[in-house]
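[09:14] KT: can someone run the structure on this one? pasting the chain below
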Amino acid sequence: MKMILGYVLENALGFFFALALFFIPRSSPSPGKAERWIPHVERVRDVLMQGCSSYYDSAIFLCFSVQIASIVMLSRLDFGINASGMGDSTAKITWAVSLLTLLPLLYVAYLPHLLQGPVSDRQAARQVSKRKLRFGLFSMCWLLTLYPFYSKMIGYFGPSLIGDGEGQVISDDEWSIIQAVCTANVEAISDREHVAMQFFGVAVLAISQIWTILRLRQFQEGISRNTGNENLDSQWTFGQIASITVFAPVAVECAFGWVNG
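[09:31] RB: done, structure tokens below
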């Protein structure tokens, strides 16, 4: 769970801000007693807008860094440069993480009015420029996800190195022995789970990608125990800590906006 905590936080914050800003009105036209709540509602909305703006900036650069890292790792595997530490499950986790970090960016990219409020003409022009910049950064991240998608297609439909034919490096019998040793007493990923991982990846649902990563990590941990290898992904490392603290400015921005609102 430590491995994906930052990605879960990114998706949870994105969903929270989108939901809150979508349902909290900019102002209440109702007369009477409701008028006294208008300043409070507007203050809450202003704080959420500041927090969401800070969140999107943090999320966009986390996504960008993840896409670059995914491209580097997957290209080394796909072109036979170095496959060390990149087993089948690790490659699938990389594909899922690449998509998972992109999904929260869709909220602001396709619902830009969430970060719009009553402003002067000069501020409105700045908002338009900012919206274009955000969409441009989102488009760049989306383009970067094309290689992980291409790598996924190679993994599923490319030629296999396992078999008894010419040019294959491991025979079917040898592979069966390796599987028996590594996956003994480990709950194998069923055909139904394989289908779920592929289908929901196409359906672009963040919750399915989180489940995919957790299920693959469970499978990897079982293999690590059987082979006597250390499971480094279960430890707090630089990447896990950085992926969480990258969203610290969101809390700071919301607290500052509330105190000085």
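[09:33] KT: thanks! The chain has eleven helices and no strands.
[09:34] RB: yep, looked fine to me
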